[in-house]
Structure formats: C-alpha cells, structure tokens
Amino acid sequence: MRICILSRNPTLYSTRRLRDAALARGHKVMVVDYLRCYVDITARSPKVMYTGAALQKFDAIVPRVASSAEAAYGAAIVRQFEMIGSYSLNASQAIVRSGDKLRSLQLLSRQNVDLPRTSFAHATLSKDDLIDLVGPPPLVIKLLQGSQGAGVVLAPTRKAAEAVISAFQQLNANFLVQEFIAEAEGRDIRAFVVGGKVVAAMERSAPPGDFRSNLHRGGTAKAIKLTKREERVAISAAKAMNLNVAGVDLIRAKRGPLVLEVNSSPGLEGIETATKVDVAEQIIEYIEKKVTENESQDPQRKKVDA
Predict the structure, then answer these.
(1) 167: which residues sit within 8 A by CB, 6+ positions away?
(2) What's CA 92's distance to the chain center, in Å?
(3) At 143, is the pLDDT very low, low, confident or very high (cuts 50, 70, 90)?
(4) How confident is the model at residue 167 (pLDDT cuts 50, 70, 90)?
(5) Cα radius of gyration rounded to whole Å, the chain
(6) How far is residue 61's CA from residue 206's CA, in Å, rounded to a whole number?
(7) 2-97: in CATH 3.30.470.20
(8) How many CB atoms lie within 10 A of CB 89?
(9) CA gap 65, 46 in Å, rounded
(10) 3: number of CA atoms within 13 Å, CB side?
(11) Which site in 38, 47, 165, 248 is 20 to 30 Å from 304, CA atoms measured?
(12) What are the Cα distances from residue 49, in Å, to 53, 54, 240, 304?
C-alpha cells in the first residue's frame, strides 16, 4: 500500500514509529506537512497540492493533526484526501469534533458517557451561579483552547475560583468549570483505542505539588490493566467521537470511571514506553484490514499503482 502520514514534523517519535512500522510491513510511506499542502477543489478532479505538484492518490492516510489552531486546516486537508478516495484512519469530521473540547463533552454526554460535572461559560456575570452549578470547590477551570495541561487551573477555594473566572473573562475567553476529583490523587488513565479495542493502557501520576498528570509536565506513567467497566467506557467514548484511533483519558472517581478528554492524535511515546506494546504496528495492521475491507466491498474501486 501507499500510505501518507500527515505530520508537521517527520522526526517526532509518533511519526517515526508509524513510518517505521509501515515500512517494516512492506508499505511505501510518505510524510507530508499538512500546513504546506493546498487544494484544488475543481469539480470531478479534486487535488491535494504539495511543493508545487499534485500528490498521487494514497491507499490510506494517517492524520497526526495537532489539537490547536491548526486543527481546522489540517482537517480540511484530510477532507480533500477523502474526496479523492483515500482511506483516512480518522475521518475529518471526527478530527474537527475531537479538537473542540466543548463539542466533545456535549457529544459524550449525549451518548451517556460519564463525565465530571462541568459547566461552560464566556462572560456570565453570575460567578456564584456558575460555581454552584458544578459544586463546591476545589474546582478545575480550563481554557477551551488549552492542551497538554496548559490553561488549566485548580481553584482550591470559592474566592480563588471567582478570581480565576474573572481573569478568564477579562481575556474574553471561553472556559470550562469542572469538579475536582480528589480521590484520584493526581492520577489519571490513558486508554489507547484502536478499531474499537483497548490495545494498551497506562496510569499517569502528577509530579509533586501539581494536580496535572501530563507527561510533558513531568508526570510519570506505568502500565495498568483496566477493569471491564473502564474498558467499556473508553471504547464507548471513542465510538461516540467516531474515532478509529483515540487516546481516551479517564479518571477514577468513587462513582466510577469518568472521561476527561478524547484525543484524535494521541502520542505513542508515553504509551509504548510504559506498556512495551507495539501500538504503531497495531495501527498499521488496522489500516491494512480496513483498506482490504473497503476494496472487497467495492470491487470496481480503482487500485492505486504500487
């Protein structure tokens, strides 16, 4: 197969692992910076342009689209590949949904996936109502645009929560107010879902003095085995977001596992290092299966030249 990995940086661990796994299984691989792509939307002849030439059709593309201001453009490039007829590991619409924290939570809630109590606001003047809606402090207050723990504040008291909300309002920012799960003790779980199955899971612990367990912020990780309930919740969350590959972040609360976030481009370094599972190979195997299924369902589909 011809596989395209859409990634800003070919030297990143996840990009290298996916490329090497695909090459090891006999595929041809090209890494393309999606921000350097542009599109020709001509009827009946859509194209993705790169460095002055049209890219040939790929059997499959692997989007590694950052959850940031780049997400909308990255998803548009994925959509153009879909128009051409390439199989995308995660669909463009699913990437857009997962990149929007508020929409993600709304979709998860609609599918009855358990979440921490959460409220969303912009410029409400009634801080008391907002705080009372979620529950008594401590509270976690998050900017919608943050990632990897950035823009996330723990407000231990009502006064602190009011101050943080006021600061975010002065920034003219959208934000979430969420209950703090004290019993988690600074730990959360990353479940890696591929094709409706949890292939690896790790528990992440926050560094001393912090409540955020992100590995980029000094957190540590170890392999764990999920309970059946945790596994079902992770799979349900990925399914609700229509993601074939997803990193589902869970937290263990007294009332059961709660979903914090679902990531459409989860990193491989932390999960592979902690669990010793070859996640990259499992992703490539899944792509092979789906492309073969698609071709068998549409025998008239034009094959891409090897």
Answers:
(1) none
(2) 13
(3) confident
(4) confident
(5) 21
(6) 34
(7) no
(8) 28
(9) 21
(10) 27
(11) 38
(12) 5, 4, 33, 18
Q: How many alpha carbons fall within 13 Å on the CB side of residue 93? A: 6
Hey, what are 227's tokens? 């309970």
In this structure, the number of other CB atoms found within 10 A of the CB of residue 112 comes to: 9
Q: How confident is the model at residue 306 (pLDDT cuts 50, 70, 90)?
A: very low
Question: 279 is written with which tokens?
Answer: 């996640």
Cα(164)–Cα(80) distance, rounded to whole angstroms? 41
Write the CA distances from 41 to 34, 84, 159, 235, 236, integer angstroms: 16, 10, 53, 36, 35
Sequence letter at residue 42: T
Do 97 and 242 meet the contact criterion of CB atoms below 8 Å apart?
Answer: yes
pLDDT (average), residues 206-229: 76
CA distances from 244 to 97, 192, 197, 290 (A): 13, 10, 9, 10
> pTM for the whole thing?
0.87
Measured distance CA(242)–CA(259) in Å, rounded: 15
CATH of 183-282, one of 3.30.470.20, 3.30.450.180, 3.20.20.70, 3.40.640.10: 3.30.470.20
How far is residue 177 CA from its own chain's centroid?
21
118-180 has which CATH code?
3.30.1490.20
pLDDT surpasses 90 at 77: yes
Domain ranges of the chain: 2-97, 118-180, 183-282
Place of tokens 């350097």: 36
> What is 169-221 written as a DSSP string?
HHTT--EEEEE--GGGTTEEEEEEEETTEEEEEEEEEPPTT-----GGGT-EE
